[in-house]
Please model this.
Amino acid sequence: MAGPDTTITFPRLVSERAQAVPQAAPRAAGNAGVELDAGWVDSVRVNLSAAERRVDTLPKRRTVKKIWQAAWLLKAVTLMDLTTLSADDTSGRVSRLCAKARAPVRADLLEALGWGGRPLTTAAVCVYHEMVPTARAALAGTDIAIAAVSTGFPAGLSPLELRVEEIRRSVQAGATEIDVVISRRHVLASDWPALYAEVRAFREACGPAHMKTILGTGQLGSIGKVAKAALVALMAGSDFIKTSTGMEPVNATLPVSLVMMRMIREFAERTGYRAGFKPAGGISSAKAALTYLMLLKEELGTEWLTPERFRFGASRLLGDIERQLEHQITGRYSAAHRHPLS
Model:
């Protein structure tokens, strides 16, 4: 600890600031969707230069330091989907990741920050279908969601009936959330009825499970098509729209995230349903996470700062957040290996 003032004042204020950030809301009813409105989709226009200028000013205008930064970083932890989607995944690796999801920040750091023994977990663990039973067993007795990637992740090029069946099997295995991938060709060809029908089929197969639709924004050709794809996915019943699989050459970016947030806002204004947003891929620093949270707060409001309406699709991010929290306490940056994920 840096001194006596830190041990008394700092923990108390961090605790207060953390409580001031909105906590998780009760799970909302799923998005029932609406009929495809071709006129609405065709009317969407995006000024890329304006979007880039908008997000370029954000880090300069919005900063949080010291106790306020610690509170926001703890909030970011609760909005994370810890993910392992590797070809060499094993039950042991998934079990260790689930243990990290249950206790994402070291106990000594939480104690120093005055967390007061309250529970702190990530929002979800995201795995392949084969690992859903392992995650279910490891997370028993918690409220941590189990997300399964489905529909031929990451390319989404397997036959439609197989993709739909994969969703059903993951739900039967215990997945409470399904991350689906769209056929990018429908967007590239501007075939909005085909995209709508595909996502609608996924929505029906998900049943009670929360559905996040991955657009693969880095492969959609233009930011205008990203906006239209996002809107069509929402019309078809997506509970969340997600930027990327994390495996494309270009993943989450701030301009794309701004445009997707604007589509969420427009959909909410017209239909009343407040869909969620999940940036994924490439968000590995605490500083970047804070920028995304500030953008979200400005564009959609504080009611989106809950796991029901926002997630980070990142795992490396957690290690850097722990490093920043330790720096708040000690004034020194620790090595990354002191904060392993699993």
In short: The radius of gyration is 20 Å.
